[in-house]
Amino acid sequence: MEISNLSSEVQAILGSVSSIATEVVLGLGIILIILLDLIRYGKEKKGLNLLALSLLGLNLAYLAISIPVEGQTFLGVLNTITKEKAFLILIDLIGVFYVVFQLVLGKPDIQKKNNKLSGEGETLALIFSIILGLHVLIKANNLLLLFIGLELISLPSYILTAFRFRKVSGEGAIKYLLLGVISTAIMLYGMSWMYGIAGSLNFSEVTTALLQQPVEISTIVFVFFLAGLLFKLSVFPMYFWAPDMYESAPIGTAAFLSIAPKIAALLALKHFVDGFGVALFEHPIIPNILIGIAILTMFIGNVSALGQEGSRRMMAYSTIGQMGLLMLVLFLDASLNYQTMLFYMTAYAFANLVIFMGVGILEQRKDSDRIASFAGEGKGNLALGIAMTIAFISLVGLPPFAGFSAKLFVFTGVWSAYEQFQNDWLFYALIAALINTVISLYFYLKIPYQLFIKELSDEGFSLLKREKSFLILFALPLIVLFILPQILI
């Protein structure tokens, strides 16, 4: 009987392996990249990049042709490809863009030793580890898998932050690590309470059990649990690490970490909150805590960005403000929330890619990320200036770019949720979002103002063809998605 049971379990595992095919590819990719780098094949720059692009392309092809099966899981702990499919595609696309990003910028952040690039293989292996963690986090329906996904993201991120081999990078990585450890410890404490209350690690059973507890207990436990996800989202009160990390990390890493982990963390939080269903608003405190965090985060991010003189720190606070607004998607109608989140994150991702690539190019040429040092460079490099201006206007939320549609979907969705649940905090959040949109207009136009209005302070420079091409390529979706939002909605 035992052999029969073991055989059936093995068959069940093998039968569901196809549901984690993309994660298997990523795991094998990590091993292959490390092995090829060890046997010195990785010393040829194109070799490892080609391997990384091929593996990510394989994943994208599989995701594109796979047929979603609603409710199917891998061993009961990982959701298979259903409504998460589009987010997985977006994550892997961002991985592709990271590799392209590094190729376009010529890997300026990786230290050179004896005229040979050092750290390239390790960087790609760590990026693949993060992408694997993002996949696990997006698919998790279990507290243990959620924790594993977060750690697969966090540990490589701490290392990548220090990859500029400078003192400031080490300081930024240490701050990032210490705050990450604290948030993880708090989250684990909350998870232990959840398991004790529910007797289960599954999201649906945990949320059901929480609603049956006294308000004080359920609120405290939920707040502890939130710590780890809020840290990844860089929202109040777990945002302090972001400016230092963005300033100290390699520009490509900062771009990647400003987008990909946010998508997965917010989606994981959405999956957990969905377990409450409409009963969420029956709880007198939990929804108000989430809305309050969103409002405070918007104001902290946007107001703090106003006084920044460095482009990296400004973009860090920009990300904080954007995540505050995006948290409001948690309360949208079930028929719209995932589509709205996907549209917003896609528009946000392309805008950030353009801006970070532009900042990376300017930083290389000017040896500074100070906004004032970019003066006049847009006049001689129209592709750079126009692409960055499009991206900044999209982040503000003005037409005719995708950011306008994204914010419109969020605003109308929040208003509908307010009408449905009559929660005053949703109305306050909508007003706060509108006010912060106006505030963001000022600092988002700082760099375009320097690029086109100010005069050159030195000789200037010319863009390479590949730099022009990819700036335009990354900016185009911001126009296309405004004209054809039905592509994602």
Automatic annotation (TrEMBL):
The keyword Transferase does not apply. It catalyses: a quinone + NADH + 5 H(+)(in) = a quinol + NAD(+) + 4 H(+)(out). It is an enzyme of class 7 (translocase). The chain crosses the membrane at residues 12-36, 48-67, 87-105, 117-138, 144-165, 177-197, 217-242, 254-273, 285-303, 315-336, 342-362, 382-405, 425-445, 470-488. It comes from the Bacteria. Its EC number is 7.1.1.-. This is NADH-quinone oxidoreductase subunit N. It comes from Sediminitomix flava. The lineage of its organism: Bacteria, Pseudomonadati, Bacteroidota, Cytophagia, Cytophagales.
